Structure formats: C-alpha cells, structure tokens
Amino acid sequence: MTVLGVSNLGKSYRQYASEFNRFGRWFNLPVKPTAEHWVLQNVTFDVRRGESLGIVGKNGAGKSTLLKMITGVLQPTEGSIHVNGKIAAILELGMGFSPDLTARANVLQSLGLMGYGHDEITGILSEIEAFAEIGEYFDEPMRTYSSGMQVRVAFSVATAFRPDILIVDEALSVGDAYFQHKSFDRIREFKNQGTSLLIVSHDAGSIQAICDKVILLQDGGLLMEGAPETVIDYYNASLAEHQNQTLRQIDCGEQKVQTISGTGEATIEKVELLDEDGQLIEVAAVGHKVTLAVHVKTHFDIEKLVLGFSIKNHLGQAIFGTNTYHTKQIQYDVKSGTELLFNVQFPANFGEGSYSVQLALVSTDTHLVNNYEWRDLAYVFKIANLAKDYFIGMSWLDSIIEIKSK
Amino acid sequence: MFKSLWNYRYFIFSSIRNELRTRFIHSKLGALWMIFNPLAQVMIYAFILSNVLAAKLPGIENKYAFSIYLMAGILGWALFFDVISRSINLFVDNANLMKKINFPRMALASIMLGSCLLNNLILLGSILVVFIFLGHSFNFTILWLIPLMGTVTLFAFGIGLILGVINVFIRDVAQGMPIVLQVLFWFTPIVYPVTIVPTEYLGFLKMNPLFPIIEAYHAVLLYGESPDMTSIVQLNIIGFLIVLFGLFMFRKASPEMVDVL
Questions:
Q1: What is the SS3 string spanning A307-339?
Q2: Is residue A282 part of a domain?
Q3: How many domains does one find in chain B?
Q4: Which in A254, A403, B63, B103 has the greatest CB count within 10 A?
Q5: Given an 8 Å threshold on Cβ–Cβ distance, is A118 in contact with B10?
Q6: What is the pLDDT of residues B111-149, one digit of tens each?
Q7: CB proximity under 8 Å: B 238-257 to A
C-alpha cells in the first residue's frame, strides 16, 4: 500500500511587477508574473507502507521545500501529493514552545497544534512525561531548561503517537547519547510497526542503516532514485565536483553498482584480495590475514599521490578505513606512466557477511582537493566463519571469557 | 473550514488561556492586573473629567454623566481597535508557526477574536463596577451589548482580515493603519458629544460606520435605552458581506502566503 504518492511535483515562486497584479490574479484577471523561479520540478516518487526513504542533496537542492510540501505547509505549484494517513515531523524540534510555560502546558499546546483532541492528549500526557525523563522539571517553565532537556520534550511530543509517515530531519543528532539511542529505538520500533520514514540527513551512515530507498535531489530535480548504497555513493562522488571529472556507474549484478568518479590523472587498474599464500580469494575466513592488492597507474605527473581505502559492511557503513596520508606514506613526484602496487595487509577480523572495498586516489587526506579516482564497491568479498566459535556482530574481537567460582 | 475549527476547539481554548497566562506569569498579583489596569484607567477618566474639568453632558443630572458617556464609547472603540489591529498583523505575527506547521489558519483568527472579546468583557466588568461607585444605574437593556459586541467584532474582523491578507504582501498596510485609526477615532463621537458637532459636519460624520455603533453603546449604557435597530441591522449585513469577502481573499491568498512570509 502506498502511503505517500508524489507525482510531477513542482514549486515555483512568482514575482510580479506590482503586488496589485498578484491580487488581480485572485480575481481571475489575466495577469502574468514577471518572473517565475522554480525551486523544484518534476519530482515523482512514492513510498509504501513501512518503507523508509532517504532524501539526500546539497544545500539548496530543494529538500526542505519538498518536505514542507509533504507536510502541507507549502502548497505545490504543480503536480500533486497524496498522503494516506497521519504525518508527523521532527523538523525543527521544539517549534512553538513558549519559554514561560511549563513543559506540560507546552505539550498540551503542541499536541493541539498537531490536531489531536482533548481526550487523546490527556490520555498520552503521562506517557510523554515518562519518555522525556526530565523529572520534576516537567512542571517548571521551559526557559529554565537546558537545550538537551528541550530536545527531550520536543522529541517525546513529536513521536507521542505513531504516525503513518514520520519525517526526520537533521535534528536527530542533538541531545545526549543516551537519549539519542532511546529516540532511535523508538523510530525503529515505529518502522517495525509499519510507519514509513522520510529521512533527510548528511550522515550517509545513518541513511544507509535505516533506509530502503534513497532519492537524490539536485538543482530542484530528482536526479536519481534507487538502492541506498548506489545513490549515496553517487552523491558522495558528485560532492567532489571539479572540472574534467568524470562520473560513471557500472552495474556489477546482484544489485551492486560500482561508482567511479575522478579527474583521471591516476587510475586503479586492478583490485585483488589475496590470502596468506598469495592465492586470489572471494571468501575470507574470520581472523585470517589477507592482502588487498591495488594496482595503480598514473597518466600524468603527479606531485602527491595518496591511496585511501575503506572496508564497508553490506549496509554501506564503514568498518575501517585509512589512507597513506595518515600512515605517512605519501608518494611524491610520481612520473606519468608509473605503475604502483599497493599491498594493504590486514587480518579479516570481521563478522560473517558481505563486505565491500572503497578506494580513493587523492592528493591529501580528503577527496575534496584533488580526486584522481574514487571507486565505490571496488571489490566485494565475503567473510565466513570457518574455524572460530559462533559469534554475532560486525567484528571479531577474539574475546576470552574467564570463569571463576567464589 | 468550520469542521476543522471544531476539531481544533481545545487548542483554541488552551491558546487563549495560555496567552493570558504568559502575560501575567511573572507578576505576583497575576490575573488581578487584568482587572486593575482597565479599572484604573476608567477611574482616572471619571475623576479628571468630572471633578477637574467639570465636563457636563446636557440633559443628564449625574455629575459623572460625561465620564459615563466616555466610558461607553471607549468600550465599543476598544473592541474595534483591538480586533482590527490584531487582525492586520495576524499572519505576519504568526509567520514562524505558519512556515513550520500545517494547521487550520483560521484557528489563529479564532484565538485572536476570543482573546479580544475576553479582554473587552473584562473592561466591561470594570466599567460596570465603576458605574456602581458613581451611582449610575443600569438595567436589562445592557443585554443589548451582546449583539452590539457581535456587530463590532464582525465589522472589525472583516476589514482586518482583508487588510491582514494584503499586509502579508504589502507591509505598508500595518504601518499606515495607526494613522487611519487615529483619524477614525476623532471622527467618531467618543470623547465629545454629538450635540457639539456643527450641523454642516454632522452628515459627514454619520457616514462613519462606527457612528451608529458607538451611539448605540451610548444609548444602552448611558441612557438605558434600546439602540436604533435599523442602522445596526444594516451594519450587520454589511459586516457579514465584508467578512465573506475577506474569507474569499484569504482562500485565494493562502497558497501564496507562506511563500512570502
């Protein structure tokens, strides 16, 4: 079932020679706006029940405009939005709190503003108080609160009732670690119960961990829609936008898409994973030493060359990553046509599952200065537990359990 | 529209209450100030005008007749002034809320109207208390005030809504309005009796829609008489049409309103 259907959505801001022309339009007078500025156009996507959608894009790409139209604050200029169910937004936490009123009074006010009736509100109030965990302060004026406490109250109110669509903006990164975990748990619980999430974040990790689908907005248009890893990789690559940069994606099957971008002064020719005997492998055993062999070729003279690598889990979250800048192995003055082999050795201390390697050829510790080549999903390998005792999780810690009787 | 307002009734009531609460939350006497302030104002008028200026109103013996006349007029004017000036800034003042949360915008108008009426009722209460002190009797004709307040509110809200919508796009409206209101105040017989107006200006004065309303307030509070019904009915019809037009403008404007706020 579709809970949110957005079709051909567009928003433009109109300017008129005089505001009186604008008034004239309300009375059906034939007046033309002098300028029409489109901030969003031709955006179409839908979200099914329980599905989570991530929205990424640079500042000014139209993310907020899109969200505001979905919540109904802004009216679309063209196209339509169909919402089946109730929307709640954790946009700007604590919007409309009055500092002179107690949290209790503000909670009543906010829930009223969200359209809940008196009985519903009085029924849920004690639950909100309990979730916020701010004790006696709940009945103190909110101006005496720390910002963390305000966030607690605001989040508790916004998520007091399970909505059909929950919009989560950057706001989540605020508050103390304990409450962050608590709020994430609540969001995850909502998702399990069938709430669809719309998540806007610059934190690729959290988007990949939660979302089933990601859309990329660019210059007011929908540039891309697809699996989180594919879109996020493309987005990250496009962030390093310089002249002469090429950006392409190769479909490697099994829903894996390799994203390659860069200016091309140096390229990655071949990537291999080898075991201790130098044999090519696709599956590594937990705890075994492996070598990632990266063959690099330069096509121009390069002043400084740095190789970066990162091992990611199947959700695209980085497990480990570093580069030769940090290991102080920068290659200086590399001549054109040089072929280099980087052997990255590490023990495969990971949990069972599928992992991917991300590689970057850059000049410093970031790809934002010079990005010769950036390759997501450069290599995919599996980790299998062949010799160790059963364990769960992303990493193998070689723990020892001591038992003493007293 | 009315259905969504009904769904928001608890929010509207609690907002009016919170508005009052936040206004007095830092004062020790709290809500008592709501009564003290208008009471003091009214008593100062009564004292200065009657004892210092010794202003008299022809045809009435009570020494305080002129202060009573003044208070009756001010009661009506205060409601008109409150409603119209708060309507003009209704959308601009609540821009932050309107830009973030989707809720029936007319809830804002209801909150504003509720709080204006409540303030005016408190003023009325204070005035009646002063009347008792001054030895001025009043009777059941005072119930006429209920429809009269309705008329004033309808009229003021209609004009205020239209200007409030325009003010979102042309902010000069809110700047110019105090001047217009001041002119209107002096063209309404509030601080002077109609009898002193030269006849050549009287016709001009009567074109002011507030003229029959304020005269009705005088009739009810000062003379204990029923007001002139024909002009009040006319005003109600006109006021109703203005409100309808205001709501039409609001409907047309609301998709673009948040764009420019």
A1: EEEEEECCCCCEEEEEECCCCCCCEEEECCCCE
A2: yes
A3: 1
A4: B103
A5: yes
A6: 899 988 988 888 888 888 888 877 777 777 888 888 889
A7: 249, 252-256
